[in-house]
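Lab notes, practical 5.
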Amino acid sequence: CTKPFVAMAVMMLAEDGKLDLDAPVKKYLPRFELSDPKLTENLTIRDLLSHAKGINSGGIVWLDAYTGQITEDRYYELLKSANIEGKPDYTNVHYTLLGRVIESVSGKNWRDFLAARLFEPAGMKSATGYASELYTGDAALPSKSWEGNLVPTESRKTDRTMHAAGGMGTSIADLARWVRLNLNYGEIDGIRLVLEKSAQAMQNMETK
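Output from the prediction step:
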């Protein structure tokens, strides 16, 4: 469920006047380059939020989510050869790009931005984008069946594989607070985190 949290962070930055949803991605990420020169110049933040163009890269996803060996140089080099469907298609690449946009305009790591602007004011005390925080204390661990018993797996997420398209953990209680925040269109316990119109926009179907 990481992507909707990242989307709300983007809406917050739009409200702050730090980005325009209909501005080109390249305005905020100068290294952004696709195999399609026209799309490179015209792809917007809104396009990323709504998965409008179906940009995907197995190499980026593998290094980001599974090995943790992604670097900025590798990311942008692989992006140049990413597959482009040219129509809506759900992919991680749209949101790992948005994570980079958040960092570019806020000056903070996307995880730290979420912690300061969303988790803390929303009262989501267990929410984190860091595996090093997630797997401490009373945490459910990735498990497998082994000789009739359920045991923790040897491999699990690390800080290096927690990315903006799938790199969060929280409790059921905090997820309930997140649901309340969205059902109340950006407000919880009398605290407004995003404007009602921004929260409504997140729930509307994009038609273009």
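Observations recorded by the TA: Strands lie at 55-56, 83-84, 143-146, 149-152, 187-188, 191-192. The mean pLDDT is 95.
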